[in-house]
Automatic annotation (TrEMBL), chain A:
Primary localization class, coarse: membrane
Single GO BP term: transmembrane transport
Entry keyword set: ATP-binding, Cell membrane, Membrane, Nucleotide-binding, Transmembrane, Transmembrane helix, Transport
Topology versus the membrane: Multi-pass membrane protein
Gene Ontology CC terms, in alphabetical order: plasma membrane
Chain positions covered by the region annotation Disordered: 1-33
Record InterPro entries: MetI-like, MetI-like_sf, UgpAE/MalFG_permease
Protein's name in the database: Polysaccharide ABC transporter ATP-binding protein
Superkingdom, natural source: Bacteria
Domain ABC transmembrane type-1 per the UniProt entry, residue ranges: 115-329
Segment forming the signal sequence: none
Pfam families: BPD_transp_1
Organism: Streptomyces albiflavescens
TrEMBL record, chain B:
Pfam families: SBP_bac_8 (PF13416)
The organism's taxonomic lineage, starting at the top: Bacteria, Bacillati, Actinomycetota, Actinomycetes, Kitasatosporales
Residues in the signal sequence: 1-33
Similarity-based family: Belongs to the bacterial solute-binding protein 1 family.
Name of the protein this chain belongs to: Lipoprotein
Gene3D superfamilies in the record: Periplasmic binding protein-like II
From TrEMBL, chain C:
UniProt entry keywords in alphabetical sequence: Cell membrane, Membrane, Transmembrane, Transmembrane helix, Transport
Protein location: Cell membrane
UniProt cross-references to Pfam families, sorted A to Z: BPD_transp_1
Family: Belongs to the binding-protein-dependent transport system permease family.
The protein's name in its UniProt record: ABC transporter permease
Native species: Streptomyces albiflavescens
Length: 344, 558, 315
C-alpha cells in the first residue's frame, strides 16, 4: 500500500514502501483510518461526510445497474418477455428451468472453443499491447520541446476516434488481398498477400489493430501520473549521482507503479472481454474457428436469437469468472506491495 | 481504456453490412412464425387450407391501370411506359380516414426528415389521418423492437421486416397485435379496393397465430438473386457468356487479372445454389420438401454439397475478389468499379446500379444471365416467399384507429399510374419532384423526404416500373418470367410457420459453415458431420413435426 | 516548503520558439546524439504509422467516385478535390440540430459525471473508513455483471426517461473505472498535507475543494476527457431510448448517413448520385468525427506538463 505516487526522495521512497508491510505503521495511522477498536457510532460520526459523498454515485448505480441486474434471474428461466403485457411481469410467468441454460452452455463445444480463443487473445494483448502505452508515455515524457510533445500527443490520440468499422476498412484496404500492399507487390511481379483472411495470423492482426487504434489513447493516464512527479525528485536524484536511466528506474517508474498495478488488475478482471465489435466485424473474414470469443459467442447464440435466458446465463458465468480473476489479481498485487483496486 | 465504451454497445450497422447478402436478401434466415389456433402466442404451427380460407380476404383484381407486361410465371407486373401525369387515374375516390392520430414505428435506412415536412403533411391530408412517424435506425431495429414490444406501451402501428422475425418476436406479435380479420376477411376487404387487389399468396403469409394480423408487402416468388455481369466489358473483351458451371470456371480463370485489379467474380454461393437446384434458403420452412413421401431438408441433399464444392473451386482458383473472401466492402461497388465482372445480388440492383452509373458513364451496361442447370441445361429453381415485410396494429388501438390505418394502407397500395401512387412514391409536385423531359424527377428535398416512410405500410401486387429507364423494367420482368418457368414451389411455400422453441436455433450455424467451406477453411466432410449432428440433435424430430403439419394442413404448393 | 515548479511556463511568453528546447536544468546532463536520434526515430515511426492511414482517409473523403473507382479503393495520391461527400453529409435534415444536441449532452453529462465521480472517489479514498470496503465491492461488482437490454429498457421507461435527454446521461453517468482511477490518484496525495489541513480544522468538503482537487488537475482533466469522449461518441442509448428523430445526437445522425448507402438490398429504391462514392461518405464521416478531438486535445495536454503540480511537504 504505497500511499503516495510521489516518493519524496529515494531514501523516503524506501520508507514509504515499508508502509506496505502489515502492521500499524506510524504514518499510516496518521492519515489512514484505524479500523481497530473504535465503536461503530464513533466511526460513523467520523466518516459520515465521506459516506455522504459517495451517495449520489451509489444511488445511480443501485438504480441503473443493480435493479436491472436483478433481471438476470432469467438465467434460470425460459424467459419470454412477451408472455405478459409487461416484460417485468413476464418474469414471474416464465417457466423455471433450473440450471438448464448453464448446462446447454457447458455442453456446447463451441463455447469452450470461444473461451480458449478469448484467453489466447487476452494473453497476446497483455504481453504485446499493454506495455506499449507505458513505453510511449515514457518516450513522450522524455521529450522536452513543448511543441514536439504537443504534436506527438495530438497525433497519437487520433486513431482512438476511428470507429472499428473504419479501422477494419482501412486495414482491409491496406493489408487485404486487393489492398495497397498486395497490389504494389503484384505490380512488381511478386505474388499478392492477404493478411486479412488468414486464420493463422488472425490473433496477431487483431492485436495489431488494437495497438494502432488505442495505444496512443492509453498513454493519457500514464502521462497524468508522470506529470505529478515533481522535478525536485529528479533533481535530488541527480544530486545523488543518478544518471538518466537510474532516474527513470528509481523516480519515474515508482511513480507509475500504482497506476500500472491498478490498470493491470482491472484488465485481468476484464480478461473475458476482448474486442467484441472488432471481432464481430471480422468474424466472416476468417470464420468463427479463429475469431469466436465469448462475447461474440453470446451474441450469436443468445442475443441474436432472443434466447434471453441463455444470454443471461452466459453473462453470469462471465461475471463470476471476471470477479474471481480480479480478486486474484488484486491479491497478487498486494503480495507485490501494490494497492491494486482495493485493500482489505 | 475507454471507460464509457461499455455503455455504447457495438455497431449492428456493421453487422448488417457484413452479412448484407445473407441477412437482407435471404431475410437473415428468419425463424418465421405463426401458430395454430391459439392467441396466447406461444403456440407453434401454421394455418392453411380451410382454416385459412375462412380468414383470407377475397381477391378482387385491380382494373384501374393495366400493366404493359402482365405478371406471368410468378413474375412482377411490368410498367414500361412513363406515367402520363395528365391522365392519372384515381383508385381512392373518397377520403377514407376520419382523422385519427397514429404513431407508426418503422425501420428507416438513412437520415429521416422532420415530421412536419410537406410530404408527410400532404399524405396525412389526402388519407385523412394524423400520422406521427417514429422512424428508427433500420440496423438496430431488431433490438429496439424486442425492447419496445416487452413494454406495455407500444406504438399504434409497427412495421416488422421478415428478417427481424427472430427468436421470440413471433410470439410477441401474437400477444401484442390486433386481429385484422374482422375488417378484412372475406368480402369485408372490398371496402379497401387496393388492398383487395393484394394477391392471396401474400395475405396467406400475414396469418400469424391463426389470425390475419398484418398488411403484407407482396413480392414475386421467383428467386430474387440474379447473377449480374458487366455487359459492356464482356462486349469489349469479346467474352461470350458461359453456359455451364465448367465453362464458367474456365472463363473466370481467363478473365481474372489480379495485377490489373480485376477478378472474374464476387461471391457466387447463392447463384451456385440456384444452378444446382438447392431448395430455397430464404425461410426455414422452405428448406423442406416432400420427396417420395419423405420430407427432405436442403442441407441433406447432394445438390447442396455440389453447390458448395463448385463455389469452393471458384475461391480456390483465385477468381473471386479478395474483399469478397474477407466479406468486406460492398459487392455492387466492386462490380460497378470494374473490379469484378460478375456478382449476384437482388434483382433491384439492375436498375439501381445502372441509374447510378449512367449519370457518369453513358456506356455502362449490365445484364443478368439466365441461370443454367448443373449440366448447362434448364435449372430447377425454388420459389421464395411471396411477402417479406409486414405491418401490424397494436391490440390497444381503437376501432377507429384500425380503420384509419387500413385507409392508410389502402392509399399506399394504390397501383402505378394513379394519383395516389404519385403522391406516395414521388411526393408533392413542385416541392418533392419536378418534371424533367416529361419524367418526374425527385428534388433534393424529395430525395430526403420521400424515402422510407409509407414504403412498407401497404403495397400493391409486385410490380416493376422505372419511368426513367423503362427498358430495365422490361429486362427485369422478362428475366423473372424466364426463370419463373423453371421455378417450383416446395411443400411449405407461402406459409408462415412457427417452429417449436427448442428447435428454432438448430440450423443457425449452417450458413457460417457454408462460408467456411467455400473459402477453404473447412471441408465438405465437416458439412456431412454437421448434418448428421443436426439430425441427432433434433433434425429428425423436426422432420416428424413438419410431416405432421403437412399431413394435418396440407400443402399450399403445386 | 511547498515547491511548485512550473518550469516550461516561461515558454508561454513566446520569446524562445516553442519548438525549441527550454533551458535544461543544471543537474540534467546533455543527451547523447544516439539517444536523441533513437527517440526521434521512434516518434517519427509512430507518427507515420498513424498519419499515413489518416492521410489516405482524408484524401479519399475529398475524391470523386471516378477517382476512387479508378484507384480501386482508398486513394493515396489525390486527383483534384471535391467536397461532394461533405455536402451530402451537411444537407441531411437533422445535421443542423444534432451537433448542438451532442454538445449539450456532452457538457451537462460530463459536469454531472465529474461531480458525482469526484465525490465518490474522494469518499472512498480513506482506507479504513466506515463501509469503505463494502461500498468499493458494490462498485467493483458492477464492472462484471451487466443487465440485459430488456430489463434496462423497461426500467428507463418506467422512470419516464424515454424520449428525454436524461436517458442519455443518467444510465451511463457513473463509470466505475473512472472512479477507481480518480481514487487511486487521490490516495497518492501526500497524507501530511491532508493531515495538516485537518489539524487546521478543515472538514472533508474543504479538504477536497482546496487541497485535493487543485493537486489533481492532471487526473481531473484526464477523467473529464474520458467522460466527454464517452458522451460524445455514445449512440446506442439514443438509438434505443429516443424515438423522436429530432432529438438524435450527432453520432446517430452520422451512422444513419453512412447507412443511407447501405439499406438492405431489395429496398434499394434510392439512387445515389453517381459522383459520390460510398467510401468517400464513410471517410468524410470519419474526418468529421475527428474534428472536435483535434480542437479539444491541446486544452487537455496543457495539464500533462512534467512537474506542473507537486506539493510535497518536506520536513
Amino acid at each position: 500500500m504505497s500511499h503516495s505516487t510521489v516518493p519524496r526522495s529515494r531514501a523516503e521512497a524506501k520508507t514509504t514502501d515499508q508502509q506496505t508491510a502489515p502492521g500499524p505503521a506510524k504514518k499510516r495511522a496518521a492519515s489512514g483510518r484505524r479500523t481497530g477498536k473504535i465503536s461503530f457510532r464513533l466511526r460513523f460520526r467520523r466518516d459520515r461526510t465521506l459516506i455522504l459523498m459517495t451517495l449520489p454515485a451509489i444511488a445511480l448505480i443501485l438504480v441503473f445497474t443493480y435493479i436491472p441486474v436483478l433481471g438476470n434471474v432469467v438465467a434460470f428461466q425460459d424467459y419470454d418477455p412477451y408472455l405478459s403485457d409487461n416484460g417485468f411481469v413476464a418474469m414471474f410467468e416464465s417457466p423455471w428451468v433450473g440450471f438448464e441454460n448453464f448446462q446447454r452452455i457447458f455442453e456446447d463445444s463451441a463455447f469452450w472453443h470461444a473461451v480458449q480463443n478469448t484467453f489466447v487473445l487476452f494473453f497476446l494483448q497483455l504481453v504485446l499491447y499493454f506495455p506499449i502505452p507505458i513505453l510511449l508515455a515514457l518516450l513522450i515524457n522524455s521529450v522536452v520541446r513543448p511543441r514536439v510533445r504537443a504534436v506527438a500527443q495530438a497525433i497519437m490520440y487520433l486513431p482512438h476516434f476511428f470507429s472499428w468499422v473504419l479501422v477494419v476498412t482501412v486495414f482491409q484496404q491496406i493489408f487485404g488481398g486487393a489492398g495497397i500492399i498486395a497490389q504494389t507487390l503484384r505490380q512488381h511481379g511478386h505474388k499478392g498477400i492477404d493478411l486479412m483472411t488468414d486464420p493463422g495470423i488472425f490473433k496477431f492482426l487483431v492485436t495489431a489493430e488494437g495497438v494502432w487504434k488505442d495505444a496512443g489513447w492509453g498513454i493519457i493516464v500514464f502521462l497524468a501520473a508522470l506529470s505529478s512527479v515533481s522535478n525536485d525528485l529528479y533533481e535530488a536524484a541527480a544530486m545523488d549521482g543518478a544518471g538518466r536511466w537510474r532516474r527513470m528506474w528509481h523516480v519515474t517508474l515508482p511513480a507509475l507503479r500504482p497506476v500500472i498495478a491498478l490498470l493491470l488488475v482491472l484488465r485481468v478482471g476484464d480478461a473475458l472481454t476482448v474486442g467484441f465489435e472488432q471481432l464481430l466485424l471480422q468474424r466472416d473474414s476468417v470464420g468463427p474457428g479463429a475469431s469466436e470469443v465469448l462475447d461474440t459467442y453470446v451474441w450469436w447464440n443468445g442475443i441474436r436469437n432472443q434466447d434471453f435466458g441463455y444470454a443471461a446465463a452466459a453473462g453470469l458465468i462471465k461475471g463470476i469468472v471476471g470477479l474471481g480473476l480480479v480478486l486474484t489479481a488484486n491479491k497478487v498485487a498486494h503480495l507485490m506491495g501494490e494497492q491494486g483496486v482495493y485493500k482489505k | 481504456m475507454t471507460p464509457n465504451s461499455a455503455t455504447s454497445a457495438p455497431s449492428r450497422r456493421s453487422f448488417l453490412a457484413s452479412t448484407a447478402v445473407a441477412a437482407a436478401v435471404a431475410g437473415g434466415m428468419p425463424l418465421l412464425a405463426a401458430c395454430g389456433g391459439g392467441n396466447d402466442g406461444s403456440k407453434d404451427g401454421t394455418t392453411s387450407g380451410k382454416d385459412a380460407q375462412k380468414i383470407l380476404p377475397t381477391f378482387v383484381a385491380s382494373s384501374v391501370v393495366t400493366p404493359d407486361i402482365a405478371s406471368k410465371n410468378g413474375s412482377a407486373a411490368g410498367f414500361t411506359q412513363a406515367i402520363d401525369l395528365d391522365a392519372l387515374k384515381t383508385s381512392v375516390p373518397k377520403k377514407l380516414g376520419s382523422g385519427s392520430d397514429l404513431k407508426i414505428m418503422s425501420p428507416f435506412w438513412g437520415s429521416p426528415p422532420a415530421n412536419d415536412n410537406a410530404y408527410y403533411t400532404a399524405m396525412n391530408e389526402a388519407i385523412g389521418v394524423k400520422v406521427t412517424w417514429q422512424n428508427q435506425d433500420g440496423n438496430t431495429y431488431d433490438e429496439k423492437l424486442g425492447a419496445i414490444l416487452a413494454s406495455s406501451d407500444i406504438p399504434d402501428v409497427v412495421v416488422v421486416p421478415g428478417w427481424n422475425l427472430n427468436g421470440k418476436i413471433p410470439s410477441a406479435i401474437n400477444a401484442k397485435f390486433a386481429d385484422l380479420g374482422p375488417y378484412l376477411s372475406g368480402d369485408k376487404v372490398k371496402d379497401y379496393p387496393n388492398l383487395a387487389a393484394v394477391p392471396t399468396d401474400a395475405w396467406q403469409r400475414s396469418i400469424f397465430g391463426g389470425q390475419l394480423r398484418a398488411i403484407p408487402m407482396p413480392a414475386s416468388y421467383v428467386t430474387n438473386i440474379a447473377p449480374f455481369y458487366r455487359k459492356d466489358i464482356f462486349a469489349k473483351k469479346g467474352y461470350t457468356l458461359p453456359k455451364t458451371p465448367d465453362e464458367f470456371l474456365a472463363w473466370a480463370k481467363e478473365a481474372t487479372d489480379a495485377k490489373a485489379k480485376v477478378w472474374a467474380c464476387d461471391d457466387l454461393k447463392w447463384t451456385a445454389f440456384n444452378i444446382c437446384g438447392v431448395l430455397n434458403g430464404s425461410d426455414k420452412a422452405l428448406w423442406w420438401d416432400l420427396r417420395d413421401g419423405k420430407l427432405v431438408n436442403r442441407i441433406e441433399t447432394d445438390e447442396y454439397l455440389e453447390a458448395l464444392e463448385w463455389t469452393r473451386k471458384l475461391y480456390a482458383a483465385g477468381v473471386v475478389h479478395p474483399d469478397a473472401k474477407a466479406v468486406k466492402g460492398d459487392a455492387s461497388n466492386r462490380f460497378t468499379a470494374g473490379q469484378s465482372l460478375v456478382f449476384n445480388g437482388d434483382l433491384s440492383y439492375w436498375y439501381g446500379s445502372t441509374a447510378e452509373q449512367r449519370t457518369q458513364k453513358a456506356d455502362f451496361e449490365m445484364g443478368a444471365f439466365d441461370i443454367f442447370g448443373p449440366d448447362g441445361g434448364d435449372p430447377t429453381l425454388w420459389a421464395t416467399q411471396p411477402a417479406g415485410i409486414f405491418t401490424f396494429v397494436s391490440k390497444k388501438a381503437s376501432k377507429q384507429q384500425i380503420k384509419d390505418f387500413l385507409a392508410l394502407a389502402d392509399y399506399c397500395a394504390a397501383p402505378y399510374g394513379t394519383k395516389e401512387y404519385m403522391l406516395t412514391v414521388y411526393g408533392v409536385e413542385g416541392t418533392d419532384y419536378t418534371l424533367k423531359n416529361g419524367l418526374p424527377t425527385k428534388t433534393t428535398k424529395g430525395t430526403n423526404e420521400v424515402n422510407g416512410a409509407y414504403d412498407y405500410t401497404g403495397d400493391p401486387a409486385a410490380y416493376l416500373a422505372h419511368p426513367d429507364l423503362p427498358e430495365i423494367a422490361k429486362l427485369q420482368v422478362e428475366w423473372q418470367q424466364r426463370m419463373g418457368a423453371f421455378t417450383k414451389k416446395s411443400s411449405f411455400y407461402g406459409l408462415t410457420i412457427t417452429e417449436p422453441n427448442r428447435w428454432t436455433n438448430l440450423a443457425n450455424d449452417f450458413e457460417q459453415l457454408e462460408d467456411d467451406i467455400v473459402r477453404g477453411r473447412k471441408k465438405i466432410s465437416d458439412m456431412q458431420q454437421a448434418v448428421s449432428d443436426w439430425k441427432k440433435k433434433g433434425g429428425d424430430d423436426l422432420r416428424a413435426w413438419y410431416k405432421k403439419l403437412l399431413d394435418d394442413n396440407g400443402s399450399t404448393a403445386k | 516548503m511547498t515547491a511548485v515548479i512550473d518550469k516550461p511556463a516561461a515558454d508561454f511568453s513566446g520569446k524562445p520558439s516553442r519548438w525549441a528546447a527550454p533551458p535544461r536544468p543544471a543537474w540534467e546532463e546533455e543527451p547523447s546524439r544516439a539517444g536523441l536520434a533513437g527517440k526521434g526515430l521512434a516518434l517519427t515511426l509512430a507518427a507515420l504509422a498513424i498519419l499515413f492511414p489518416l492521410w489516405i482517409v482524408i484524401v479519399t473523403s475529398l475524391q470523386s467516385r471516378k477517382t476512387i473507382d479508378a484507384a480501386g479503393g482508398l486513394v493515396v495520391i489525390p486527383r483534384g478535390i471535391t467536397f461532394v461527400a461533405y455536402k451530402e453529409l451537411l444537407t441531411g435534415g437533422q445535421v443542423q440540430r444534432a451537433p448542438m444536441v451532442s454538445l449539450g449532452v456532452t457538457l451537462v453529462g460530463t459536469l454531472f459525471s465529474m461531480a458525482v465521480s469526484v465525490l465518490c472517489a474522494y469518499g472512498l479514498s480513506r482506507i479504513g473508513s466506515l463501509g469503505h470496503r463494502w461500498l468499493l465491492m458494490l462498485l467493483l461488482a458492477t464492472m462484471f455483471f451487466g443487465a440485459g437490454l430488456i430489463p434496462t429498457y423497461l426500467l428507463v421507461q418506467a422512470l419516464g426517461l424515454t424520449d428525454t435527454y436524461l436517458a442519455l446521461i443518467l444510465p451511463s453517468a457513473v463509470s466505475v473505472f473512472n472512479i477507481l482511477v480518480l481514487r487511486s490518484f487521490f490516495m497518492g496525495i501526500s497524507p501530511e498535507l491532508i493531515d495538516s489541513a485537518r489539524i487546521d480544522g478543515a472538514g472533508d468538503w474543504r479538504i477536497l475543494w482546496t487541497i485535493v482537487m487543485p493537486l489533481s488537475r492532471a487526473v481531473l482533466a484526464v477523467i473529464s476527457l474520458f467522460y466527454a469522449v464517452g458522451y460524445w461518441s455514445a449512440w446506442f442509448n439514443a438509438s434505443i431510448y429516443l424515438t423522436d428523430q429530432d432529438m438524435m445526437p450527432l453520432q446517430n445522425v452520422m451512422i444513419q448517413l453512412v447507412q443511407k448507402q447501405e439499406r438492405p438490398v431489395g429496398l434499394a429504391t434510392q439512387i445515389n448520385t453517381g459522383q459520390l462514392s460510398p467510401l468517400a461518405i464513410q471517410m468524410a464521416v470519419m474526418v468529421m468525427a475527428l474534428l472536435p478531438v483535434a480542437i479539444l486535445s491541446p486544452f487537455v495536454q496543457r495539464h500533462f506538463k512534467k512537474g506542473m503540480l507537486t506539493g510535497a511537504v518536506k520536513g
